[in-house]
Design a protein that fits this description.
abc type-2 transporter like fold, 15 helices, 4-stranded mixed β-sheet, 66% helix, 2 domains, mainly alpha, 372 residues
Length: 372
């Protein structure tokens, strides 16, 4: 492999890229748009849950419980139905997402230290929201009950659990989503950028010029990959910076380690694009193939949205073939946990293997021959 020829191919590709408006938009505009769009659109935070309060007691104590739900910031009391039938109608029509039922005798039973069951009716058509609302309600009732016991100078006996959340203390979904977006976006963008490189040569009729030169296949592949590698590293920096500045995602780890592991990941992702471009006859087909090969797998099978451990065994095995799976662990580990190479070396090894295999396949498949 001749370094001079490799750099000449890289310079040629950089000039072509500079003249291609579509590729420039794909390289510099689309990553910024995607991180802003997905960062705001994807959220598991549930706030302002519309709540109806069916107060069958009508006392000061029952009103204080309803006020505790309102003051929590998670529930907004919008209705006060007079009966179960009206509550059911409001749930079925979507007017409210939950109904708090405070039974008659609530204040009297509290005064006598009896167990007082409080009912919460939830709209389970959205299972995620219903589960989160149930957890919120349980926490609010437990905290309110503890305050009542303390005011009455009666502290319950027994052990109490004190929960502390590490790495994402506020449980903000953006702190989980944005680092994962770095992996997903770069997986898609990197493959799409390089998927058009060799196909572009065939469409524009410039492959004949390359075929007549002494440039070897590996020099063409690596030379075409080199400009996009620097663009990819720049895009990673931009997406991470947007996550920190716009979405206030913490950065607890090493920027140098993130850059090094991003380099390994981008080699593999760009290699996938070069491989697709080597077997494609047109840029449109190459881009479509790159989207199919990266978009859904990166989103669904990388651990970005869904926990891999909860997937069927077959799909868990397939996830090992998705490079974004390893980079999601890297970005969340570096940004949120501040872990180092001693923890992330397995991901580095997998990404290195994937990069070597991808570039080798791309070099083997690419033929510097004129198609008849």
């Amino acid at each position: 492999m001749d370094l001079h020829r490799l750099l000449a191919i890289a310079r040629k590709e950089a000039i072509q890229l500079r003249r291609d408006t579509r590729s420039l938009i794909l390289a510099f505009v689309l990553p910024l748009f995607m991180v802003l769009f997905f960062g705001y659109a994807i959220s598991w935070d549930v706030k302002d849950i519309r709540l109806a309060v069916l107060d069958q007691d009508g006392t000061r104590a029952s009103r204080e419980l309803a006020e505790a739900f309102q003051a929590s910031g998670y529930f907004t009391v919008v209705e006060h139905p007079a009966s179960y039938r009206e509550s059911d109608r409001q749930l079925s029509t979507g007017g409210v997402r939950a109904v708090l039922v405070i039974p008659a005798g609530y204040e009297r039973d509290l005064a006598t230290r009896r167990d007082v069951p409080v009912q919460l009716l939830l709209d389970g058509s959205d299972a995620n929201t219903a589960t989160i609302a149930s957890n919120y309600a349980e926490a609010i009732v437990n905290r309110h009950s503890a305050q009542i016991l303390l005011l009455g100078r009666s502290i319950p006996e027994g052990a109490t659990a004190e929960v502390r959340i590490w790495y994402n203390e506020t449980l903000a979904s953006r702190n989980m989503v944005v680092p994962g977006l770095v992996a997903v976006i770069m997986s898609i963008i990197a493959a799409m950028l390089t998927s058009m490189t060799i196909a572009r040569e065939w469409e524009r009729g410039t492959m004949e010029q390359l075929a007549s030169t002494p440039v070897r296949a590996v020099e063409i592949v690596l030379g075409k990959l080199l400009p996009y590698l620097f663009i990819g590293l720049f895009d990673v920096a931009v997406v991470v910076a947007v996550g920190i500045v716009v979405f206030e995602v913490p950065f607890h780890g090493s920027a140098l380690l993130l850059a090094g592991l991003s380099f390994l990941f981008l080699l593999g992702a760009l290699g996938v694009g070069i491989f697709i471009s080597s077997v494609a006859d047109s840029q449109i087909f190459a881009m479509q193939a790159a989207m199919v090969a990266t978009y859904l797998p990166a989103i669904l099978l990388s651990g970005f949205l869904f926990d891999i451990a909860g997937m069927p065994i077959v799909l868990q095995g397939i996830t090992f073939l998705i490079p974004a799976r390893y980079f999601v662990v890297v970005t969340r580990g570096v940004l949120l946990k501040g872990v180092g190479a001693g923890v992330l070396w397995p991901q580095a090894v997998f990404m290195l293997v994937f990069a070597v295999v991808g570039l080798t396949l791309a070099t083997r498949v690419f033929k510097k021959e004129i198609k008849v």
